[in-house]
Amino acid sequence: MSLAGSFLTFSPASKEPRLTLSVQGLPVSFLIDTGATFSLLNHAPSPWLSSEVKTATGVEGNPQSLELTLPLNVVYADKCFPHRFLFSPACPIPLMGRYLLCKLEATLTCTPEGVGLLMTVLGDSAPTQGNWETPLSLSPDLTDLPSTLWGISDTDVGLLLSAEPVRIQVKPSLTPPSVPQYPLSLEAREGIRPIIEGFIAQKLVRPQRTPCNTPILPVKKPPKKDGDPVRWRFVQDLRVVNQYVVPLHAVVPDPATIISQIPWDAEWFTVIDLKSAFFSIPVHPDSQYLFGFTWEGQSYVWQRLPQGYRDSPTIFSQCLGHDLEGFTSPQGSTLVLYVDDILLGNREEAALRIDGKALLLYLHTRGHKVDPKKIQWTAAGKPIQHLPLIHKLLDAL
């Protein structure tokens, strides 16, 4: 993937240097302030705030005690990282200070024509002069959809309106399972630190002492191409928990039946991948103790369905199926569901575009998030068996 840059000049007489980032999935327009060390938010819901206070000096030289946020998930183009902000509701506008500019690897240039900002991002996600504040690369059809539809990071997840908090039944007369955390290398700890900080900031996990503990297993993901950054995946070994709980009766979808539902004359397809789908379903407080893990000496439990729990796919499929019962394709496209993937098929491209947007809007109203990087929007010109979803189904036969 090649490197590309974005450069924009500002008129000092009429425009201020601004940059819009996604903070916890919400767009925030920052005024760039190189005189400030820390970045500042003037609006922050209480779950974002920590109990810490930091002293900052204002423009008049007066010290102020300002609240500090938890690590919040910040996204711009290909960059995604946690960052802590000062919170001041009295400030008229969010400010971007030097620490955040350094994390973004931004370059500022002052000329007689104005202030230029150079951002270096990867490949196709590089913004241009016309869309430099947009962190997503979407089909033009989709740019008018709500920005909160898109899950732009691993911890930017939905919350299903139809999902009741899941209570989990355990087998009687068994001791709660507890497997100690084994030592992790420094590289592994630093690799998953942003992920766990994102879990904490999004309230997916919370601190709690629990009799159950299972180890976490950081997995390094090899770069897809030379020069790509190394990424890590959070894995929790829940096998002993899966043996401790009473399993649900899982209705396993038959791949052959699913494939047979796709009309033979359909030539246009859209595939929607729901973002971090299991995390969109809450776990009842009485059952959260089952999913304990230890991070830097602190015990945490999951407040959402974790990956690796045996019944997470079954529970999510039931919730999604229930949600989709309320959707009707305006142009009659066929809808096929497989776990957290949804396929729409139609003979006509225009009809599929209408139905695809209608489905995305409907999913948004139900609390789902869609992965913008994996959506296959009105794909045509290749056999259906080349679609990744069909690969999944054929592999399951």
Mean pLDDT: 81
Helix content: 10-25%
- Judged by helices, strands and strand pairing, the structural class is alpha+beta
Number of strands: 21
Strand order of the largest sheet: 8-7-2-3-10
What is the percentage of strand-forming residues? 25-35%
Number of DSSP helical runs:
7
Order of helices and strands: EEEEEEEEEEHEEHEEEHHEEEHEEHEH
CATH classification class of the largest domain = Alpha Beta
| First and last CA, distance | 35 Å
Outline the biggest β-sheet. 5 strands, mixed
Q: Name the quaternary structure.
A: single chain
Shape: globular
Task: Describe the model.
This is ribonuclease H. It is an enzyme of class 3 (hydrolase). It is a single chain. This protein has 397 residues and is an alpha+beta fold. It folds into two domains: 3-135, Acid Proteases (Cathepsin D, subunit A, domain 1); 186-396, 2-Layer Sandwich (Alpha-Beta Plaits). It is 18% helix and 26% strand. It has seven helices and 21 strands. It has helices at residues 98-103, 186-201, 239-244, 255-260, 312-324, 349-365, 388-396; strands spanning 3-9, 18-23, 26-32, 40-41, 49-57, 63-69, 72-76, 79-83, 86-87, 95-96, 107-111, 114-122, 205-207, 219-221, 231-233, 268-273, 292-295, 298-302, 334-338, 341-346, 376-379. A five-stranded mixed sheet has the order 8-7-2-3-10. Strands 4-9-6-5 form a four-stranded mixed sheet, with no helix packed on it. Strands 19-20-16-21 form a four-stranded antiparallel sheet. A hairpin with a 2-residue loop joins strand 17 (292-295) and strand 18 (298-302). The relative contact order is 0.14.
